[in-house]
Amino acid sequence: METIKIAGVKREAFGKKESKSIRKQGQVPCVIYGNGETVHFSVDARSLKPLIYTPQSFLIEFDIEGKKEVGVMREVQYHPVTDQVLHADFFHVIPGKPISIDVPVKLTGNSEGVKQGGKLILSKRKVRISATMENLPDEIVVDVTTLGLGKSIFVGDLKYDHITILTPATTAICAVKMTRAARGAAAAAEAAAAAKK
């Protein structure tokens, strides 16, 4: 998984007043927890943009006044009107220890059902997985080549080495829906076959 580096400044004072003052300086109050410790710090609001305005997930390497912390984003709080980032929570990543994270789904292949006139629908853009830092993928690749008309691929159909998928097995990832054109073609084929009998 791709890593983004962000510099942070340790926070000693907490509370609404302090947080407001930090935001006025273009900083975002943050916390990283797990691993038995909680670290309060702030980062430049601009440095969070690559993490927030993307479907991708990243490992984040923080340099908090010389102390290195590696984490993943857990939660972001936004201002209800301005959409300004008010606070960000991160979770410690420890080498060799599994962590849960949402990763994007990428469909690959040319589906059988699409060749027959169906329409490929992606219904789950991200799935939650658990893996160690070393095995975290940038995305979950789903091959749709054999997916037929009217058929779906579910989370339970996916199998990957060194990755546990936490999203429920009954969740549909994608499907090939029957379009009007495909229905018409299927009906015409049936009528032609019946006429030959």
TrEMBL record:
UniProt source species: Alistipes ihumii AP11
Name of the coding gene: rplY
Full protein name: Large ribosomal subunit protein bL25
Pfam families: Ribosomal_L25p, Ribosomal_TL5_C
Keyword vocabulary terms for this entry: Ribonucleoprotein, Ribosomal protein, RNA-binding, rRNA-binding
HAMAP family xref list: Ribosomal_bL25_CTC
Residue span, Large ribosomal subunit protein bL25 L25 domain: 8-90
SUPFAM superfamilies recorded: Ribosomal protein L25-like
Domain (Large ribosomal subunit protein bL25 beta) ranges: 99-179
Family: Belongs to the bacterial ribosomal protein bL25 family. CTC subfamily.
Record-level GO cellular component terms: ribosome
Subunit annotation: Part of the 50S ribosomal subunit; part of the 5S rRNA/L5/L18/L25 subcomplex. Contacts the 5S rRNA. Binds to the 5S rRNA independently of L5 and L18.
Protein purpose: This is one of the proteins that binds to the 5S RNA in the ribosome where it forms part of the central protuberance.
